[in-house]
C-alpha cells in the first residue's frame, strides 16, 4: 500500500468492534388477590374424650386452594451500539 499526500491520494484505516449478542430476560411472577377469596376450602376437626383413665385425641386441619394471577414477561434487548477504535 502506498501512502501519498494530496487530492485523491489518501489512505484511511478503521477498526470496528461489533457486539451482536442479543440479551433476553424472562421472568414469571405469581400473585394472590386477597379479595378474590379461596377457590375451595376444606376444614376438618376431630376430638375424642376418654373417661377417668384419660384417652384424649384432638386433631384439626385446614386446606385452601387459592387463585393466583400469573404474569410472564419476556424482554429482548438489542445489541449495544458499535465502538470504533
Automatic annotation (TrEMBL):
<keyword id="KW-0282">Flagellum</keyword>
<protein>
    <submittedName>
        <fullName>Flagellar M-ring protein</fullName>
    </submittedName>
</protein>
<feature type="region of interest" description="Disordered">
    <location>
        <begin position="1"/>
        <end position="85"/>
    </location>
</feature>
<keyword id="KW-0969">Cilium</keyword>
<keyword id="KW-0966">Cell projection</keyword>
<dbReference type="Pfam" id="PF08345">
    <property type="entry name" value="YscJ_FliF_C"/>
</dbReference>
<feature type="domain" description="Flagellar M-ring C-terminal">
    <location>
        <begin position="5"/>
        <end position="55"/>
    </location>
</feature>
<dbReference type="InterPro" id="IPR013556">
    <property type="entry name" value="Flag_M-ring_C"/>
</dbReference>
<feature type="compositionally biased region" description="Polar residues">
    <location>
        <begin position="10"/>
        <end position="29"/>
    </location>
</feature>
